[in-house]
Amino acid sequence: MRSPRGDDDRGSARRDTGAPGREGEPARDSDLAGPTEAEGPRGDAAGSPAASAGRATEVDLVPGEPLPRHLHTVAVTPMSGAAQAVSDNGDREQESTAESRSRTTALRFAAAARRDELAEIRDRAAAARDEIADARDTRAAVGDMTCEARAEGAHEAAAVDDVVAVVGKLTASGASNRRQSALERVSAANDRDASGDDRSHAADDRRYSGLDELTGVFRRGTGELALTAEIDRARRSGSSLVIAIIDIDELKALNDNHGHAAGDALLRDVPTAITSTLRSYDVTVRWGGDEFVYALSEASLEEASSRAAEIEAALKARRPGASISTGLARLEDDDTLESLIARADTALRSAKVARKP
Known about the structure:
This protein has 357 residues and is an alpha+beta fold. It has helices spanning 7-10, 29-32, 49-52, 69-75, 81-153, 157-207, 220-237, 251-258, 260-277, 301-318, 337-355, and strands spanning 241-248, 284-286, 291-297, 324-330.
């Protein structure tokens, strides 16, 4: 029978975990077995880390006293060199993969931005060609009227011959102007076709650079790059830009009452309603769990508000009873992406308060 715990008991053989035949207990086979010939005589003191490693121990832990040294040692056995190397290699591979994805995403967005700029240049070139063609047509029409006037004013035979020569030259010049005008219009049409191709490729670059697996729109990280590119483009071109934040109303209640599959279906329907309403090159991002952000270039707040209403109507057509709240903010001269999003988020909170009965 064990005595009550006290100072004398603390120093008993029960604290010595390496000693066979503990007081009041039969000796265990592992305690009685001596070293094998291959192992040679044990030189470690009983209770030392080397002696106790790999063997179950039983220790009375006394409040206020430190753990025995060998327990401290065993508890923090370091990882082997090979295991540490594997762990380090895994960390490096993860970091390398993340860096590679980030570089790929950045390159795709840079390519998309260049394609957008080229498309704008082509559009301007097409407009200039149309203006040139209009000017040529005008000159040709003026030449025609001059020919008619000179022909009507000729009375003498000699004068008629001179007029015929002049009229012939003017007519040839008018025909040449019309041919050049037609060529300019063909070139303008080609420029517009190429511009459309550039924008289509830009949309593809953005589409496949970093998409959210559930919704098919940009993840937040890649979306921030895309939105920043939109801000830079708007500033370079001097055009307007509106950022919108959409929040799904009562998504948690839907998950609780109908399950997460129903919630996931709604999460897919919302970006579908957004992208089916916006232009193919407009940027849409899954910002958070139930929040989406999109950018409208060359749009006023009134136009953006009308577009938001169209998005909600498209969602209700797909999923009756679903509702969303939208906050809008227009890009100002001193805005960053963070400040623009913050103002849109403030507008969103106001919209959600206004929707409550």
